[in-house]
Write a structure and sequence with these properties.
The protein has eleven helices and no strands. By secondary structure, the chain is an all-alpha fold. It has one domain (2-212). The protein is globular and about 50 Å long.
Length: 213
């Protein structure tokens, strides 16, 4: 329960936490952010890490802090692309065994199955579309690895999707995050981004439930 409260506090007060991290860790902040984005996209057991809201918040802070938005874009794009690549190969080598097990520790089988259905429906472009859907984003490259998706095409989709995802949210925060209304209502805006980014997942889930019934 305490862990859940900590994560809720992190999301709700994202601007405050990021400011404190920048003040305390300076240049090491870049490494920390790289690792967060890499793990959120590259490790199938960490879909709970912040993604869209983190990028938007970073962009907004970069407009009025020592953070360099161009450097952030380069580093976090590399992190997002590298994360998906690692996740693909984890799925390629270990996925088939995991996929057919009923109970897998630290892995939500329901999320995995949902990503598999998403992949079956949208094919290779899932790698791009999934970038903008939390949870699905983490599981999509893993499922692509399980399905032995052509690595050449996967890489193209991965690079395009990773760069587009980081650019849209990071520069969106940079150019719009300091508009007075957004700046004065930063927490509700971040929560709105989280809710909107979760909508595709909720819609797919409800559609699947409706078909099943």
């Amino acid at each position: 329960m305490e862990l859940i409260q900590t994560f809720i506090d992190l999301f709700v007060h994202l601007d405050r936490h990021l400011s404190l991290v920048i003040q305390h860790y300076g240049l090491w902040t870049y490494l920390l952010l790289f690792l967060i984005v890499f793990c959120e996209t590259g490790l199938v057991v960490t879909p709970f890490l912040p993604g869209d809201s983190l990028l938007f918040g970073l962009g907004a802070l970069a407009a009025s802090s020592p953070l360099q938005v161009d450097l952030l874009f380069g580093l976090l794009t590399v992190a997002a692309i590298a994360g998906d690549m690692v996740n693909y190969w984890i799925g390629f080598f270990t996925g088939p065994k995991i996929f057919h097990k009923e109970n897998v520790r630290f892995l939500n089988k329901a999320h995995l199955m949902r990503a598999h259905q998403f992949y079956e429906k949208h094919g290779g472009k899932t790698i791009i579309i999934a970038r903008f859907a939390p949870i699905i984003r983490t599981f999509a490259p893993f499922v692509a690895g399980i399905g032995r998706m052509n690595y050449h095409y996967f890489t193209i989709y991965n690079v395009v999707g990773g760069a587009a995802w980081v650019a849209i949210f990071l520069f969106g925060g940079y150019f719009f995050g300091n508009i007075p209304f957004i700046k004065n209502n930063f927490t509700p805006v971040i929560m709105a981004i989280i809710i909107l980014s979760l909508l595709p997942v909720v819609v797919e889930f409800l559609r699947a439930r409706y078909k099943a019934s």
